[in-house]
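pinned: reference chain
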Amino acid sequence: MTDCDASVKAVEQVGPGIFRIVLLAPGTARESLPGQFLMIEASPGPFPLLRRPFTVSSADRAGGTLELLFRVTGGGTGALSRLSRGDSVRVLGPLGRGWPVSDGRWLLVGGGMGAAGFPFLASRLGPHDILLGAGNAASLAWTPPGALLATEDGSAGTKGLVTCLLDRIDPFSYERIAVCGPVAMMRAVVAALPPGVRASTLVSLESRMACGWGVCGGCAVPASGGGFLRCCADGPVFEASELDWDRIEEAAP
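pinned: its structure tokens
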């Protein structure tokens, strides 16, 4: 983990309110693993007061660059979207527990911007399949070749929720299933999987964070055995069985 200044190499809008930013931060790029995140200060002024967490969408160790995909939801993400090539941001990371990459076959299930970190994970995996869902085609953050798509309005892929795509795969054929998206979507996916598969299912949670390394306790999430886990330090990637899905709430934008 390092706290450094990163130079902006590129910023582009890739969808309605969705942006891609490329940062030059060689040390952070070398250390980053799929599923980890960065705490970014986009503006040196008094607003926004706190850094914002962003999952790493890809990391080029040789080139020393990091890519982030994000949707503008407030002041912090708005400031990030307005940056230009040559600007500088403060970056703390990489942080958190990422995906336990392995050689077996994986299934990636993403909802909306929850798929933002999947390009990095997919690049480190062997054989894998991808299911992606969103409200409409414009809200799909990432659409790699071969992915099965579902949109609520039918503008891309199958009309319906991403859970409707589960009937088109054999869940028992995967070593691991990785799920990321809104809490309601992840809860529905986990519930739809056969009990024998849930033990190999992983989820990545989003949460409002203040510190990013487990000190403040502001990102606590309910644990299945009682008590709480810290999204930033114990996660953001968890075994689905570690969490109390009846008590988890959606992260505020």
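why pinned: The chain has a mean pLDDT of 93. The chain has two domains: 2-95, 106-242.
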